Amino acid sequence: MNVVEFQNVSKYRKDFSIENLSLTIPKGYITGFIGPNGSGKTTAISMMMDILKFDEGDIKLFGNSHKDPNNKQKIGFVYDDLYMYEDFTIQNMKAFIAPLYHSWNEARFQEYVEKFELPMRKKIKKFSKGMKMKTSLLFALSHEPELIIMDEPTSGLDPVFRRELLELLQEKMVNDNQTIFLSSHITTDLDRIADYIIFINKGILLFQKSMAEIQEQFHVIKGNIEMIDDDTKKLFTGLQLTDIGFRALFEGDPALFEPFEDSIIIEKASLEDIMYFMTRKEI
Amino acid sequence: MQHLLMKEIKVSQLYLLILIVLIPLSYVMNVSSTGINIWVILGFLPLLFYLDSQNNVNRFVASMPIKHMHIVLARYLILMMITTGALLFLWSIDYVAHQGLPFLKNHSFSGYDILQLVTLNALFLSVYIPVFYYFKNFTYAITFFLISFVILVYTFAVISGNPYLTFDEPVIDFLVYLLYNQPIILVVLSLTVLYVSFRISLRIFVRRDLL
């Protein structure tokens, strides 16, 4: 079952467009949403949340129209920053936010305040980037949502909290059967925790696959430059040439290269390799 | 809805405190305060939109289970509550001041004066709230607000202060009579223009991108 479905969604702007975007977010898994900066990740998420309008297509949340505000009872949303009045404290925010959710869990809220070591009466403008992210997370998790949507949550965070955050998300998914949708251009985070990956570039969906499929289908091939000609170039999704050799991304069965086993190296491609080669094609 | 209203009050509490201090102070200092106070009261409008814009709050609010209609309605209600409350406070301070401060030269407000000021505020808010929703960029909105407001006040001053400009047509006389003698007309007029303005603002808000 899918909690989110995009059906041929398009949005046209002067300088940027999303075209015919169709994707799904399966229930009970962590889905990573990757793409370089400016590829349309935030735009797609904002359309999902009805913050941005789209020109064509349809978006469904939990089988309903994405415009239905009741859907948001089931969603915990974390932006890349904390968009709230900077003179507010966590206490002020709670007074406003908690009554909006039927499933607000005060005990869970207190538990996270303690766990994240957040001050209740300090003004938000005095918070560090990490504290702001923790505050966003605090409010997103305290109403026990079915779906957690996070837009670049790890950008600008120190490695220690980044890892803690990822562990927490994995724990939520396993223990509470929550669905997590996480956009990031830091692909190493997703290598660690994602079950599915959606890859977007310049507003166009490049693929949606499970991590198992990605690990099976994508490989980095390294070899001598003499092996590259017009025919072999066509085999690769992306190619990097240097003075002494080449690195290329191959999508398909790597058994094809078995005859060249001694002269090439075949490695499993990381998400970073895939993103790098698929967005650059030939370097 | 009440949580949205509480949020708006919390956001503007410092400005409210300034207003609470400024109104009695203007009487103690024997300064003609009506114009200043109206200007300060109308300052709430750009203030609330400025704070939203500066902190990108609409992005956050729109991600929560709140109807867009309630977001816009809360803005109208809070602005009307603040402006009406401030004018009632002005009236009560004016009454007390005229009892205890013999040096005051200006005549005291009647209830009808206050009703006219409330109507005037309602008309201003009805015109300018949709303007602040229309312009995504706050700088454009405040520029439009200030320029048009100055033009409006200047035009009014020129027309009313110029003895060569007279409006003695029967229709205008009748309208002036209604405005000055029929409190119900003022209340109905305020509510009608506020409702029309609210529908326009809502239409703008639900159709526009919040980023």
Automatic annotation (TrEMBL), chain A:
Using the record's annotation, list all stretches that form the ABC transporter domain: 1-227
Q: List the InterPro entries hit by this protein, alphabetically.
A: AAA+_ATPase, ABC_transporter-like_ATP-bd, ABC_Transporter_VariousFunc, P-loop_NTPase
Which is one Pfam family of this protein? ABC_tran
Record's keyword terms, sorted: ATP-binding, Nucleotide-binding, Transport
* Keyword check for Hydrolase: no
Question: Which GO terms fall under molecular function for this chain's record?
Answer: ATP binding
Q: Has keyword Nucleotide-binding?
A: yes
From the Swiss-Prot or TrEMBL record, give the protein name: ABC transporter ATP-binding protein
TrEMBL record, chain B:
Superkingdom classification of source: Bacteria
Q: Where is the signal peptide?
A: none
Q: For this UniProt record, give its keywords in alphabetical order, as a comma-separated list.
A: Membrane, Transmembrane, Transmembrane helix
Q: Name one Pfam family in it.
A: ABC2_membrane_5
Q: Which residues cross the membrane?
A: 12-29, 35-51, 72-93, 113-135, 142-165, 177-198
Q: What is this protein called?
A: ABC-2 transporter permease
Please give the organism: Ornithinibacillus xuwenensis
- Show the taxonomic lineage: Bacteria, Bacillati, Bacillota, Bacilli, Bacillales
